[in-house]
Each structure stands twice: as structure tokens, then as C-alpha cells.
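Q: I have 177 residues here and want to know how they pack in 3D. Can you give me a structure?
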Amino acid sequence: MDRFAKGIMSIGLLLILLSIVGCNNNADNNNMSGYSTIMETNNLDNEEMIMGKYPFPNEVNEKGSSEITIHTPAGTSENGKTPVFFIDDDDSRIQIGIDAEDFDGSRQSFVYVDKIYLRPEQFVDRKDTSIGLHGPMLKPGIHTISFIQYEDDDPFNGKVTSYTEARYAVERKNRDY
């Protein structure tokens, strides 16, 4: 499917989603006022995600003994490094791996990229996961992945019990070859 057709389909889907969201009753969303929700459909694997569903906590510092290590095509974030990987216009999604250490397996870990909620994780019997980076997560610059655990798994009212983050950087490939 060419880019024009994908663009037309994306615009149509966006208009449909906007009309659905616009007709929704706001009474259920009163505790979310001030937070934006972005619905994004990933055409690569027909997975719908709700980004921004849970707010990023204000004025939080890293705490707890949990740690994450990002594994990108260009290396890892071990020892505080920020791995840089290069993308071009054809790269619409890049998969990265994440190793998680010392998380409380009885609680959900809320995953954020650049302070926007992505999805939950729970580390009981495993210590690794992956994230498909796409859209704004692949814009050139430095990006932050954060894993946060809340008291009672409540991102609205629960106290942060564990917070750790790691960074990755994206740069455009030089096409002068």
C-alpha cells in the first residue's frame, strides 16, 4: 500500500475516532481532567493502544531498587549510557528489549515513554520485555523510558513505590553516500 493510501486511511480513522470521542459522555472522565489521551492504531499489527491513559506523576525522583536496561540496535543503557541508533524515512517501528531487575512482582509496572503512558507490565516469573517504538518515540533526540510502580496499583492516588528510567537517542541516517 502506497503512502498516499495510508495517509488517507489514517485521516479517515482519525476522523472516526474523533467523532466517537466527541460523542462520549465526559462524566466518567472527571478525574482525568487536564490529562490528554491519545488513541493510536498501529497498522503493522492491528494493535490499538491508549497512550496517556494514566498521568505521569509530578515531581518524582528515582526511588526503589528496581532497574531497567534498554537494549537497542546500537547497544545498551548499562552504566548510565544512552545508546544512539539511526533511523531513516522507511523506519516506522523499531523493537527494543528491556531487562528489568528487582521489581515487586505483586504490582504492575506502568511503562511510560517521554512521560506518556504506554502500557502495564508485571514481572513475576520473567525479567524482560520489549517495546515497539513508533511515531513520536522515533523522532530525533533523547527519549526516556520510565517504569513506575504505585501503592495499590493506583496511578491516580497511589504513592510511587518504585521509579526507574533509562534513555535512548534517535538520530537520522546520513543519506549522503
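Q: Anything worth noting?
A: Residues 3-23 form the longest helix (21 residues). The chain is about 10% helix and 40% strand.
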